[in-house]
Write a structure and sequence with these properties.
The protein is an alpha/beta fold. The chain has helices at 18-26, 35-44, 65-76, 96-107, 121-129, 148-153, 171-181, 205-213, and strands spanning 2-6, 29-32, 55-58, 81-83, 112-116, 136-138, 161-166, 187-191, 199-203, 221-225. The chain folds into two domains: 2-116, Tetrapyrrole methylase, N-terminal domain (Cobalt-precorrin-4 Transmethylase, domain 1); 121-225, Methyltransferase, Cobalt-precorrin-4 Transmethylase, Domain 2 (2-Layer Sandwich), CATH 3.30.950.10. The protein contains eight helices and ten strands.
Length: 229
């Protein structure tokens, strides 16, 4: 019995590896953040997502212990399973890590957990940043409300490159928070990585804000801070 942790495209469907396709076609069940999105992925790459192929079962941040028990039962029956998210690598700013923790606690070393690596927005952004990446800290998404000010205050505590995500709804507010604290700090802001409208902005928070206002704030963002200068 094996749980395959499979990275899926963050935009460009051609980024799904041949190994990922083969594995997805071979497992009994695919645990999905949203079965509708995974079914669309399967259709786009000509993989069956019905009774002819692997069963698609939802598993997301709101899944309870009952769903974890179902996953355990499937594995105990000897089935191979796959874990995917809507986009990117499971477990990275994603509840997949909690499932894996529960499975390791239950099965110990008797369960094989195998990564099928691939797209990750944080790694893709870092690779084109030009900032030091021998050390970096990834902070996920800033809190929406409670703890938000503390999140931005703590950016001064790190001596290494800092990377985090932000949504289209809060990107300008986030840049404003950074501008207030670090007006001269250099940023790289990546929008819609690997997608049709992929854009990479470089400059201070104020400079990037102006560029966004004259282009677009639509999409998903990765923000990279070059600390100490």
């Amino acid at each position: 019995m094996t749980l395959f942790v499979i990275a899926t495209p963050i935009g460009n469907l051609k980024d799904l590896s041949e190994r990922a396709k083969t594995t997805l076609a071979s497992v009994h069940t695919v645990l999905c953040e949203d079965t509708r999105n995974t079914r669309k992925l399967f259709t786009s790459i000509s993989l069956p997502g019905s009774e002819k192929g692997p069963y698609l079962m939802s598993f997301h941040q709101h899944s309870d212990d009952t769903k974890v028990k179902t996953v355990i039962e499937l594995l105990e029956q000897g089935h191979d399973l796959a874990l995917v998210t809507d986009a990117g690598t499971p477990g990275i700013s994603d509840p997949g890590g909690k499932l894996i923790e529960a499975l390791v606690k239950h099965f110990g070393s008797t369960l094989t957990i195998s990564p099928i690596p691939g797209p990750s927005a944080v790694v893709a952004a870092l690779s084109v940043s030009g900032f030091p990446t021998d050390e970096f800290v990834f902070l996920g998404f800033p809190p929406n409300k409670k703890g938000r000010q503390k999140f931005f205050d703590q950016l001064s505590e790190f001596d290494m490159t800092i990377v985090f995500y932000e949504s289209t709804h809060r990107i300008l507010k986030t840049l404003d928070e950074i501008k207030k604290r670090f007006p001269d700090r250099q940023l790289v802001v990546c929008r819609e990585l690997t997608k049709l409208h992929e854009t990479i902005y470089r400059g201070t928070a104020g400079e990037v804000t102006e560029k966004l206002k004259t282009s677009s704030i639509k999409g998903e963002f990765v923000i990279i801070n070059k600390n100490k200068g």
